[in-house]
Design goal:
Two copies of one chain form a homodimer. Chain A has 13 helices and eleven strands. By secondary structure, chain A is of the alpha/beta class. The longest helix of chain A is centred in the middle third of the chain and has 22 residues. At the A-B interface, strand 3, helix 3, helix 4, helix 6 and helix 9 of A face strand 3, helix 3, helix 4, helix 6 and helix 9 of B.
């Protein structure tokens, strides 16, 4: 017997470009289900539950829902709160009062952990609640998932950024470093490699958190590329760690730690500036530039992977279908090669709390660029109709002036 | 009598997303003109002339030219070299040897100055050379021009960035600072205002180089907005100056100066980090994030203003037409309100060397946001089909739990 009651949806953790696709997938599926009496949204994730801060999503027009789906950021607002015992008790009093029977939470591994705790608490309290976690993260580090909604669009932003900036760096000559998000997983930084249309084009070097970062090796790599091409374009993960496993950036900043124990890595330019300085000093190259891509890579409006957007919609839709069937857990994405996606529900413990790293075989042996396996893995995720960049194919004009005057012709 | 000879084209200064549109506009016009015997491209701007580093652009296919037009960065590569007497002498020896009779140079005010010097030298040497400057700059600071090719696309990038990041900042709560390019002119930073679809949406505050920056006033502004909306999204120009006219950032970095005497402002995150620290300390707000937009705003692939792209093509085409008529000077863009564009040739001195600032009336009286005049001015430049962001319009659910338990309902 399916439960009759209200559905509550919320969003947790850092937003993505397509997290609202999942929200709209859930809402539209809920609208089709007669057992769902009301569709509530909790504002600021589980904070909205504890504070009884709900909105009635029934009032959204179909047209506005489709616009919401295309809007970056978590439209229901987000939170990084982790509930303790007292907080959970309070949340359940509020949910019981409102007869919430379906709870869908869109987020990463921290949000999955929250779903796990809530489901466990519900069982202990003997409260019938279907709790389903809908995956999202630009870091692509959710366990059990082939890839995560949100990653493909962020990866596409990184791809388009590197294709463009490589042409800029080529025109000006010099070293360019782009610092990419990724606390422990290098997937997004690795995605910069997809920018390459021919092997002399940047990014020429890629550094990820999974491979210990050695400054001397890095400087050697940069020097070698610079000597070969007269420029060097580099993608570096914000989360790169030294050989002892300490984030390189944590040696540069006062720590700001969130409630899940994560150090703030984004929102400052120190790592890029430090690496640029090191290159200038060691290699005596004056034009060295570093950009920290920051929040734009997860929130930039209008650059999305169509594949990612479609899948983000589907994980929401599928998650709602499963909850309405009386199931709880985490929706995960599987791939059948070369590229077809299936959704499954797995026990929430399998996704919650811990994250996964990028497999070693996605990087080359030297650890300073991706492997062909990574390219095969990532290429379908960034979607279709990706803009191309041109090269000049004009032949050089013979240097007849130099020859006539007996000057050196390189 | 029109001169029969070779045409030489080159690109100078920082690239834009549409600088190659102008190049293609020139090439296609040259292909149609029987007096042009050859179409040469000089690599790395005027460096390519001194070093006899030319390519034969006749070999480019029409298809590749159209792809080049859409490629960011200067495809002929760029330079910041400023020619002295010996350098000019050398350039003329090479040009004379190759019978270059038409010289088109795409660039900003420094490149216009180079064209002025070259034309002057040609007259002194009694060498028949038509020299035309084709405008480009994301800074939008070229004199005589209503606006400059390259600005509209960079402004569109800033617009889409702020629309997205405002939603991200709204979801997470806190202060967000975006540092935008602009050495002396605030146009590009001001363009962030175009992101707003309703007045509560960010950016809430805008700071430009034209108005002296006072840290205390800035912190007061931020505090006021934060108290009102629970968040604050801010656009700050990299070139903001204190009351003595010193760049705020020059107090933070060791200077790197190029051959035109310009201090390096981009390519590091110091200004954003400094402002974020000041806010954290004074206002005791923990979540303060700063992104320095850096090179992506002028080179990001796939985000362009269709209006800007069309005009960039046209300035190239018109510049070539005028040169082939035997004229020299700088092509400028005029506007007849509300929005129709005309091109004119003006004496090169009128555009060369000096740049223009944003008119005071483009900012509000307080100097912390744009005026309606600026919006009217800038809106047509960012082009059509700009993605929109949605807001949630769902009504709040009555807080019956809180009421029942006699708790405060804000």
């Amino acid at each position: 017997m399916p439960l009759i009651g209200k559905m509550l949806i919320a969003q947790g953790g850092g937003p993505t470009a397509v997290i609202n696709e999942s929200l709209v997938g859930v809402i539209k599926e809920a609208r089709r289900n007669p057992n769902v009496t009301h569709i509530y949204g909790a504002l600021h994730g589980i904070q909205g539950i504890a504070e009884e801060d709900f909105v009635d999503l029934a009032y959204e027009t179909e047209g506005n829902l489709e616009c919401i789906a295309k809007t970056p950021g978590s439209i229901l607002l987000s939170t990084r709160v982790k509930p303790d015992e007292a907080y959970l008790m309070r949340m359940f009093e509020v949910m019981r009062h409102h007869n919430i029977r379906y709870f869908l939470y869109i987020g990463g591994n921290d949000s999955a952990e929250t779903v796990r705790i809530i489901k466990e608490f519900a069982q202990r309290e003997d409260y019938d609640l279907m709790a389903v976690h809908i995956p999202k993260t630009i870091d692509n580090d959710l366990r059990e998932n082939d890839h995560s909604p949100g990653f493909g669009s962020a990866a596409r932003y990184v791809l388009q950024a590197f294709r463009g900036v490589e042409k800029d760096n080529m025109a000006m000559g010099g070293i360019y470093i782009g610092i990419i998000m990724g606390r422990h997983a290098g997937f997004l930084t690795a995605a910069a490699a997809l920018a390459q249309q021919s092997e002399d084009e940047g990014p020429h070097l890629i550094y990820v958190p999974e491979i210990p970062f050695k400054l001397e090796k890095f400087l050697d790599d940069v020097e070698r590329v610079y000597k070969k091409f007269g420029r060097c374009t580099i993608a570096v993960s914000e989360g790169i760690e030294d050989e002892k496993g300490n984030p390189v950036i944590s040696q540069l900043v006062e720590d700001e730690v969130d409630s899940h124990g994560n150090v703030q890595l984004s929102g400052n330019g120190l790592l890029g500036d430090m690496l640029a300085e090191a290159i200038k000093k060691r290699l005596n190259i004056s034009r060295v530039r570093a950009d920290t891509f920051g929040y734009l890579q997860r929130s930039f409006l209008g650059v999305r992977s169509d594949v990612d957007a479609k899948e983000a919609r589907e994980v929401g839709e599928v998650g709602a279908k499963l909850a309405f069937k009386g199931l709880s857990g985490s929706v995960v994405m599987r791939r059948i090669p070369p590229y077809r996606v299936y959704y499954e529900l797995v026990p929430i413990e399998k996704v919650a709390r811990y994250s996964k790293s990028m497999p070693r075989e996605f990087m080359n042996k030297e650890g300073n660029f991706v492997s062909e396996e990574f390219i095969q893995y990532a290429r379908p995720l960034v979607g279709n109709d990706i803009p191309e960049i041109a090269v000049l194919r004009s032949p050089p004009i013979p240097k007849t002036f130099l020859v006539k005057h007996g000057e050196d012709v390189e």
